[in-house]
Design goal:
The complex is a heterodimer of chains A (about 475) and B (about 375). Chain A is of the alpha/beta class and about 475 residues long. Chain A has 14 helices and 22 strands. Chain A has helices spanning about 15-25, 55-70, 130-140, 155-165, 180-190, 195-210, 265-270, 310-335, 340-370, 375-380, 395-405, 410-420, 430-440, 465-470, and strands at about 5-10, 30, 75, 80-85, 90-95, 95-105, 110-115, 125-130, 145-150, 170-175, 215, 215-225, 230-235, 250, 255-260, 260-265, 275-280, 285, 300, 390, 395, 460-465. In chain A, the strands form six sheets. In chain A, strands 1, 2, 3, 4, 5, 6 and 19 form a seven-stranded mixed beta sheet that branches. In chain A, strand 2, helix 2 (about 55-70) and strand 3 form a beta-alpha-beta unit. Chain A starts with a strand and ends in a 16-residue tail after the last helix. Chain B has about 375 residues and is an alpha+beta fold. Chain B folds into two domains: about 5-45 and about 155-225 and about 315-375, 3-Layer(bba) Sandwich (FAD/NAD(P)-binding domain); about 90-145 and about 225-315, D-Amino Acid Oxidase, Chain A, domain 2 (2-Layer Sandwich). In chain B, strands 1, 2, 8, 9, 10, 11, 19 and 20 form an eight-stranded mixed beta sheet that branches. Chain B is elongated. Classes of the chains: A alpha/beta (about 475), B alpha+beta (about 375). Chains A and B meet through helix 12, strand 22 and helix 14 of A and helix 4, helix 6, helix 8 and strand 18 of B. Strand 22 of chain A pairs antiparallel with strand 18 of chain B.
Chain lengths: ~475, ~375
């Protein structure tokens, strides 16, 4: 017997709202997240309550409060390392290994930040925009006394503004996108005036601080020197490729750089749901209907992990997945949702309509932002041969190209031939860029035939002892000996 | 591809694992025009995803003479493959922690010694002297110098380059959908009728897919699919220098030069030849890791980076089938070799010898013994 009706993986806005919606419909719900509290990346909770409140705390606190008041069983500080076809979830928590199973599974695992490699990107002091966000939001720590913020997308302004608010210095913001790219987002932006206001608020802070905002500029090199990190910025074209023109040098002790987000689709790939590649959505995503139903029965995806659309949309998408799950399980379980199932079902459907409308509005905004940070082919193509692409295993662009030329034609073959993606990041850092390089070299730029790295357990690297727990030799169930 | 492509070869090898590729390599070097037809990429089913153990401790006793010769081939890939799979010689220790395992260890060591494996028994202190990181609860170890490991994931790349250099035509992503006799040749048809490969000789080397492949030739030989679980850790400081196994054969473990530790032993996952390796079974993973941690306690702090599954083929008597297919001219089969990665290249070399009309150095394994007789098929169940 399953322990729960629904297991929700991920405690960001999508996961929490999915859990709340399913729970409100009468389902028994458990939610897992590796962080100490709900909120995900955008509504991340501070570690200490002594930290001054920032703008993002309000919705995050509301989310956490609602979850606390609900009947949802939460497993925070639990790292999920395996999910099986019968929806058994194995996790390692502070009290050791736990596992439970559900009739349905909602995957709301968010995204991974993408960094397109450049000369010196592995230098200490070069961090992701998302990493800077974690430092600022959860610990109130500046990433450096002075920081260069580079890359693309709305995180540039968000990170720069938070550094300024925290009393830090931003040397410059280098944005690959041009003003025209931003201009094209305006029609979508007005769909969420509240979010647009937040963005303008950031920009005002940046202007007031006198931070140079450079558009169509890309980071091409970082070197360590006695007085800090020396970054070289070059003008680039719309495809993200550096072009001839005046380069500029910026000195800072931290460089926060990010080139967009890729959906974390490992779990749905592990479960062999159908997937497709979408450059706009950030990468490989599960094929799903508008409420998050995948090709696999009782498996749902919600939030940015289902395709980048932003935190506001993720919340509504989570509600939709939770409701879809309640409707499907209600049908599946008959009277499980109470004696008056007919009324409940009708209520659920009207909530679905409302959530779909709210989601559509928020997603329009979020997708226009996602557009700004979609992977640009010229950008990956301009990676220098000697630049490391897979930083866990020190695999360079030249080695990837050589493997492609020797006949490697998909990502798993490339991995075996070069060790690209075999290290502790399990391919999360390099996978998207390596696939882009392989697709360009072997498949005329098409990502589908290049495939993606097979999802594997453990979903995060785990210590052996976290998995083995306490045991004695006699208790190990030894299968029958191999034939002599 | 809309247009059917027809090409004529001296031999078509169906299945691009170690055995098929080695057979192809030696035939091509003997002057034949060879095609390797592989459903996926070379060495992706078993040959590139196994534990890479090159050991006599886990080889079936009767295959020890083959494994010893194959071990030499692996350690000298420069001489025949031309590409490295990082084959490394290291002592092999098979361990006993209980009285029952001690008995098992002695029986198994004696049986393998009977076939030529130089295996000596070490007591607790000698075992710990050789491998200081061992759990001191060890009672006895069987020691063999003919042991070691390769980085199996490099196998596909190595054979790809070697076959290309030898002029072998590699058809990857080309599952054979049917095989016909056309004008005295074998015609292998690829997916959607897009590829036809005609060849005078046929080698069936399809691993766990041998059963459906042989059925295309109206030969009925059951082949069982084992779904073996493999675990690799992140790089870590040295914790072992030998290849470690347990008397019952359900653990294999070694640390590569880069510091990562590979843990296997044949614990089963979920999968089959239609779906491949589908998923790991958490309890089997935990069991396998507990065994590993029991043997080398320092592994407690290792971080598991990745778990995957490889498919192993087994016949009804768990012995190989290598030789001419009965009733068909110039058709051969190779596969189902227990610990097949260890022995694979030598088996391929032997089959190539037989196909070239030479006397194989060691006897082949007649597939006829495994055929389900037609009468048996005709009987009602």
């Amino acid at each position: 017997m399953p322990d729960f009706d629904v297991l929700v993986l991920g405690g960001g806005p999508a996961g929490v709202n999915a859990a709340l919606a399913a729970s409100a419909a009468g389902l028994k719900v458990a939610l897992f997240d590796e962080n100490p509290a709900a909120g995900g990346q955008v509504y991340r909770a501070p570690i200490s309550s002594a930290m001054p409140p920032t703008g993002d705390l309000l919705p995050g606190d509301a989310l956490r409060h609602e979850l606390d008041q609900s009947a949802v069983t939460t497993y925070f500080n639990h790292v999920v390392w395996a999910v099986t076809a019968d929806y058994r979830v194995d996790a390692a928590g502070p009290a050791g290994p736990v596992h439970c199973s559900g009739r349905a599974l909602i995957v709301a695992t968010g995204t991974t930040e993408r960094v397109v490699p450049f000369d010196g990107w592995t230098t200490p002091g070069v961090i992701g925009l998302a990493a800077a966000t974690i430092l600022l939001k959860s610990q109130g720590i500046l990433p450096g006394r002075s920081t260069l913020v580079a890359g693309c997308g709305p995180l540039l302004a968000a990170v720069a503004a938070k550094i300024i608010e925290g009393g830090g210095k931003v040397e410059a913001i280098a944005d690959i996108a041009g003003l025209g790219d931003w201009g094209r987002t305006m029609p979508a932006m007005v769909s969420r005036p509240d979010l647009m206001r937040e963005g303008f608020h950031w920009v005002r802070e940046i202007w007031s601080a006198g931070v140079p905002m450079l558009s169509r500029q890309t980071l091409v090199k970082v070197e360590q020197a006695h007085d800090g990190l020396h970054a070289t910025l070059a003008p680039c074209d719309a495809a993200g490729r550096p072009i001839a023109g005046k380069q500029r040098s910026v000195v800072a002790d931290c460089i926060a750089v990010g080139h967009g987000l890729t959906p974390s689709s490992e779990i749905t790939r592990l479960l062999r749901a159908e997937h497709r590649y979408s450059r706009q959505a950030g990468g490989w995503i599960a094929v799903a209907d508008q409420d998050g139903r995948t090709s696999r029965p009782r498996l749902y995806v919600a939030g940015d992990g289902a395709g980048i659309a932003g935190a506001a949309a993720a919340g509504h998408h989570g509600t939709l997945a939770g409701l879809a799950c309640a409707i499907d399980l209600g049908t599946h379980l008959g009277t499980h949702l109470g004696t008056d199932l007919g009324t409940d079902a009708a209520q659920l459907r009207s909530r679905v309509q409302a959530a779909r409308q709210a989601h559509a509005k928020a997603a329009r905004f979020g997708r226009s932002m996602a557009q700004l940070m979609a992977l640009r082919p010229g950008h990956t193509d301009s990676i220098e041969p000697q630049t490391i692409v897979c930083r866990c295993e020190d695999v360079t662009r030249a080695e990837i190209d050589a493997a492609c030329d020797a006949g490697a034609h998909d990502m798993n073959q490339l991995k075996a031939w070069t060790r690209c993606g075999m290290g502790p990041c399990q391919g999360r850092t390099c996978g998207d860029v390596a696939a882009e390089l392989l697709a360009a070299r072997v498949h005329g730029g098409l990502r589908e035939p290049a495939g993606c790295l097979s999802a594997r357990t453990p979903l995060r690297p785990m210590t052996v002892e976290a998995l083995t727990g306490n045991f004695s030799y006699d208790d190990i169930p030894i299968p029958m000996a191999a034939p002599l | 591809m809309n247009q059917a492509m027809t090409t004529a070869f001296d031999v078509a090898v169906i299945g691009g694992g170690v055995m098929g590729c080695t057979t192809a390599l030696f035939l091509a070097r003997a002057g034949m025009r060879v095609a390797v037809v592989e459903r996926d990429s070379l060495c992706r089913g078993a040959s590139g995803v196994n534990a890479g153990t090159l050991t006599l401790h886990m080889t079936r006793a009767a295959l020890v003479p083959y494994a010893i010769r194959a071990w030499d081939m692996w350690m000298n890939t420069d001489a025949w493959l031309g590409q490295s799979v990082l084959a490394t010689a290291a002592p092999g220790l098979s361990l006993a922690f209980t009285e029952h395992e001690k008995t098992l260890l002695q029986q198994r060591a004696a049986a393998r010694r009977g076939y030529g494996a130089q295996i000596d028994l070490l007591d607790r202190d000698a075992s710990l002297a050789l491998e200081p990181g061992l759990n001191p609860a060890v009672l006895q170890a069987a020691y063999c110098a003919t042991d070691g490991f390769a980085s199996a994931y490099l196998t596909g790349r190595a054979y790809h380059a070697a076959l290309r250099e030898a002029g072998v035509h590699i058809f990857e992503q080309t599952p054979a959908t049917r095989i016909d006799r056309v004008a005295g040749m074998y015609r292998v048809t690829g997916p959607a009728d897009a590829i036809h490969i005609d060849a005078t000789r046929l080698v069936m080397a399809g691993g766990v897919w041998l059963e459906p492949l042989l059925a295309m030739l109206d030969i009925d030989i059951p082949v069982k699919t084992l779904v073996n679980q493999l675990i690799v850790t992140e790089r870590m400081p040295p914790v072992m220098q030998s290849v470690l196994s347990i008397a019952n054969g359900l653990l294999s473990m070694k640390q590569f030069a880069n510091g990562s530790v590979l843990i296997g032993g044949g614990w089963q996952g979920v999968g089959d030849r239609v779906r491949g390796g589908v998923e790991t079974v958490p309890d089997n993973l935990i069991g396998n890791l507990r065994l590993a941690q029991h043997v080398i306690p320092a592994l407690a702090q290792a971080r598991v980076a990745r778990i995957w599954l490889g498919l192993e083929a087994e016949t009804a008597d768990a012995m190989p089938m290598i030789g001419a297919l009965p009733g068909l001219p110039d058709a051969w089969v190779i596969g189902c070799v227990h610990s097949g990665y260890t022995s694979g290249p030598y088996m391929g070399k032997l089959l190539a010898q037989a196909m070239l009309g030479e006397e194989p150095e060691l006897p082949l394994f007649d597939p006829a013994r495994l055929m389900v007789p037609v009468e048996a098929l005709a009987q009602p169940h």
